[in-house]
Design goal:
about 950 residues, mainly beta
Length: about 950
């Protein structure tokens, strides 16, 4: 018999020749026998192996139309190399392709006979095979390359998904799969998080996200913690005897994998307490030793150690002062002066200048592959090391007749512990102080009139108030544009989670920061002196925005907004948005309070929809509706003309098809005339306008409107049995309009909403529309961090139905439509255009991503695609439009026949009418086709941003 070697992952082809099935039981090949039992044919056969060019030829004569139970290959000693189980595959003339995934090994075989096997013997064989198999591990697969994917992205490194490992999507990509490494089984069942029966695989490779003949399908894990289980079974479809099981907990991060054996930081340790020791001695401040740091022993003590922060090396080597002290650590914590099971040894550094070089290695005792060394320089000083000069006392002659009066002793003023000395810039990625000028070791203190260059300091930042433990600290950025209270150290402008700073990117331009400490929590008790810092933010050589010139008020200055205590990010378990099995009838609320339940509206009645509602608000007292499901064809919450003070949170809204011809679905929340609206963490599907906030009658300070962290799918304002031309519908996500009675609110906000409309399933116009409404000069209306994809009319191919925008400023009064800032939004594939202004004053749109392929999923052009951004005078109102700025955005808007792109590219219209030149300094999306995949990737980027910011969208328990 010829010998050969199988190579891992080499296809093996078995040629099967059909014959007469009546020959069952006769010799099929050189004496082999085929037997039948219980109405179906089972065969265990061994045929002559002819291995050539990694192909296996197997001639099976005189049978056909049998079910293939398994093919087993044995070594010359008879050991099972693999079992290929493929139930329900009929053997006919043709080719059967297998995949050999075992390691290289020599093999040989001779002729074997087919012997009859009883059912019990067959089961016994399966159990023995299962017992001999081992489900040893899980391997990460790159489904684009159809190959194993090392977790750190380094070829040759481990691809094993081990306990508490991390998948870094920034390194390995999002097209993945996981393979269970096992042989000799009938099937493998995978569980994923709470899904015990996520996937069952009957043939190798046993792929968590399935495969097609060894071509792995793609799986993109969501960010966060996950669990995968894999269980081997003797039979197909998770039947028979259960064998070994493996469970792996792992995390998914959007970041790039740390460099192998790279030292991420060096932390000063207080050896007396075994805790990190802040370098300035202030509890809660940074303990990371940066280059050129100064260790003052009078502040940090003399019982110290230094810990190397590194992920899973074999060893870490410390070199202090070029070989003066050498030490190698093989287990965590990796301590410069050693430790005993995590109890740090004490080290008192010598006064003077030092350098420390730290290197990680793949092997123990400084062996194997070395990572990149980290070198820091630091100085040590001690109290008394610099002598304080003693003044010389000169005796004064005593006059003979004059008595020298006793000098008045003046007590040295005691510094007020509530006075904040400084604020420091923080790198939110590394959670350490960030040099303002970007030079490692330089000062992170933001001085008055400082300039922060994002190109040098980075864009994921925060600001810390440098003060010891106090009751609370109030931050006021740009006159309450961002007002935040911190009750525990570290006191961070953009908040933190036990010292893990939240990321904040300051807008380009000039800012004023006021910081005040209080003796009690929530900005109460005694107040210290307010620290006021002016600073400017720029990004490389990009020009700074033109300052907004605001006319002085004619009567009185606007009232100072009352800061509110910022709540921690919404957390918890997402609530189910599936409809409940039953609803109550419509509810009318006539008294303030908190209401929970499930309500459905009544059928519509001609000629209006206003009396078809699930809930009707008939009071101006504060009403909270929470943890609810509301459904129906009409208005789901009708608060028209109630001057409502309404909070809606953790609710699901389900729109139904209109029950009357020539009528459309009702709005989800109708706030025609209201004084306060707080719409947070809700879910809307197939409704009319989710939030229609039309006439504001609030107090202009504490009463406002906030629409935050909602998830919206398929806004649908289509009329029943009518056409768009007959009944043009104007349904939005949020309609802010006609604030004509008392003016605009302070602190208005629309943020972190996830809105997706699909063609053919939705019918909407402008997603966020301001009409005769906006913010105040001292408190702009903020529209930020929203994902807005798709706005289509009922027939998206109708050339007359091309009116839609992602964010639109409208109205025939430019004073009312003013003071609106739109930033960090993603706007995709709107039927007409991305964002712009047809009215208003003091509009600032910056740092948004505005992108559209202008094509359907099949590649056909949508009609009516216009432009990414625009400024034009749509109403001719007086005074004229002014101070409209659309700057520093990423623009990529495809338009058939369009030419006004930044670079002049064909079929692009990144901008259109540019009144007064306010569209400038924007970046063009890279040249080339913008595809459906491009837009899908934008959504994944948004999800990553949401996860990194710790934001929870949609209803939460």
């Amino acid at each position: 018999m010829p010998n050969g070697r199988f190579h891992p992952n080499t296809p093996i082809t078995a040629q099967v020749q059909a014959a007469d099935p009546t020959q069952a039981g006769s010799a099929v090949n050189q004496g082999s026998k085929l037997t039948a039992s219980q109405g179906r044919h089972q065969a265990v056969f061994w045929d002559e192996l002819n291995i050539s060019a990694f192909h296996l030829d197997m001639s099976l004569n005189k049978f056909r139309n049998f079910r293939l139970i398994s093919i087993q290959l044995r070594t010359f000693s008879g050991e099972i190399m693999t079992t290929r189980s493929q139930p329900r595959i009929g053997i006919t003339a043709g080719t059967l392709t297998l995949l050999a995934s075992w390691s290289q090994m020599a093999c040989s075989a001779s002729n074997h006979s087919i012997e009859p096997k009883s059912a019990s013997q067959s089961s016994s064989l399966k159990s023995q095979a299962l017992a001999s198999s081992t489900l040893s591990s899980l391997t990460l697969i790159n489904s684009n390359k159809n190959a194993v994917q090392p977790l750190d992205g380094v070829a040759g490194h481990s691809a094993q998904l081990s306990e508490n490992s991390t998948i870094y999507l920034g390194t390995v990509g999002s097209a993945l799969n996981v393979r269970a490494n096992v042989s000799g089984v009938g099937s493998v069942k995978f569980g994923y998080d709470s899904q015990a029966n996520f996937q069952i695989e009957n043939v190798t490779p046993y792929a968590f996200a399935s495969d097609s003949n060894g071509i792995y399908k793609s799986w993109s894990p969501s960010l966060g913690a996950h669990t995968i289980t894999a269980t081997a079974y003797s039979g197909a479809n998770a039947s028979g005897t259960a064998g070994s099981k493996i469970t792996v907990h792992f995390n998914v991060s959007a970041d790039q994998a740390p460099a192998p054996f790279a030292i991420s930081g060096l932390t000063l340790i207080n050896a007396a307490s075994n805790n990190p020791q802040p370098l300035d001695g202030v509890a809660g401040h940074s303990a990371v030793i940066v280059d050129n740091a100064i260790l003052d022993l009078s502040k940090v003590g003399s019982a110290l150690n230094i810990r190397a922060d590194i992920l899973k090396p074999g060893s870490v080597q410390f070199d202090l002062d070029n070989g003066a002290t050498l030490h190698t650590e093989n287990v965590t914590p990796y301590a410069f002066a050693g430790d005993n099971g995590g109890v740090y040894n004490s080290w008192a550094p010598a006064v003077g200048a030092h350098s420390l070089k730290v290197t990680g290695y793949s092997g123990a005792d400084g062996s194997g592959t070395a990572g990149t060394s980290r070198v820091i320089h630091f100085s040590v000083i001690a109290a008394g090391s610099v002598p304080v000069p003693v003044p010389t006392v000169t005796a004064t002659p005593v006059p003979t007749q004059t008595v020298t009066p006793t000098p008045t002793v003046t007590a040295t003023p005691v510094p007020n512990p509530l006075n904040i000395s400084s604020v420091s810039l923080i790198n939110a990625d590394s959670d350490v102080a960030q040099a303002v000028d970007g030079v490692a070791g330089h000062s992170a203190v933001i001085t008055d009139n400082a300039v922060i260059d994002l190109a040098k300091a980075g864009s994921n930042l925060n600001i810390r108030a440098d003060i010891a433990n106090v009751g609370s600290v109030l931050f006021d950025l740009d006159t309450a544009a961002l007002s935040h209270i911190e009750n525990v150290v570290p006191y961070a402008l953009a908040s933190d989670n036990n010292g893990d700073y939240a990321a904040w990117t300051p807008s380009i331009g000039a800012h004023i920061l006021k910081v005040t400490a209080y003796s009690a929590g929530s900005a109460s008790g005694s107040a210290g002196a307010t620290l006021v810092i002016h600073f400017t933010v720029k990004n490389g050589s990009a020009p700074l925005p033109t300052p907004t010139v605001t006319p002085a008020p004619t009567v009185t200055a606007p009232p100072t907004p009352v800061p509110t205590v910022t709540q921690p990010p919404v957390t918890g378990t997402p609530m189910s948005t599936a409809e409940p099995s039953s609803y109550s009838g419509p509810l009318e609320i006539t008294k303030g309070g908190i209401y929970s339940g499930n309500w459905k509206s009544t059928p519509m009645k001609n000629p209006t929809i206003w009396e078809s509602y699930a809930i009707k608000i008939s009071t101006s007292e504060p009403v909270t509706i929470q943890n609810c499901h509301l459904a129906g064809p009409g208005i789901l919450i009708n608060a028209r003309y109630a001057n409502a003070n309404l909070t809606v949170r953790n609710c699901s809204f389900h729109g139904y098809t209109p029950t009357v011809d020539n009528l459309s679905r009702g709005r989800a929340i109708d706030l025609t005339v209201f004084k306060h609206a707080d719409i947070q963490n809700n879910y809307f599907e197939n409704t009319g306008t989710p939030v229609a906030a039309i006439e504001y009658r609030g107090n202009g300070t504490t009463e406002t409107i906030k629409v935050l962290r909602n998830r919206v799918r398929n806004i649908n304002g289509a009329y029943r049995n009518t056409t768009f031309v007959e009944h043009p519908m104007f349904q939005n996500f949020v309609a802010i309009g006609a604030y004509t009675t008392v003016g605009n609110p302070a602190n208005g906000e629309i943020g972190w909403n996830d809105v997706i409309n699909e063609p053919g399933k939705s019918a909407s116009e402008d997603l966020i529309n301001f009409n005769l409404a906006g913010g105040q000069s001292g408190s702009w209306f903020k529209v930020h961090d929203n994902f807005l994809r798709g706005s289509f009319h009922p027939d998206p191919y109708d050339t007359q139905a091309n009116s839609a925008g992602g964010i639109q400023i409208d109205g025939d009064d430019n004073i009312k439509a003013s003071y609106i800032e739109c930033y960090n939004n993603t706007i995709l594939q709107i039927m007409n255009g991305g964002m712009g202004a047809a009215a208003g004053q003091h509009i600032y749109m910056h740092d948004n991503r505005v992108i559209s392929s202008a094509k359907d999923a099949a590649g056909a052009w949508w009609p009516g695609s216009w432009a990414a951004v625009w400024i034009f005078n749509g109403y001719g109102a007086s005074p004229a439009m002014s101070d409209i700025r659309i700057e520093n955005n990423l623009l990529g808007w495809a338009a058939q026949g369009g030419t006004s792109s930044i670079s002049g590219a064909a079929d692009r219209r990144d901008y259109d009418t540019n009144l007064n030149g306010g569209i400038k300094n924007n970046t063009e999306f890279p040249a080339g086709a913008i595809t459906e995949a491009t837009q899908n990737n934008e959504y994944q980027m948004f999800l990553n941003k949401v996860s990194n910011a710790g934001v929870a969208i949609g209803p939460q328990h």
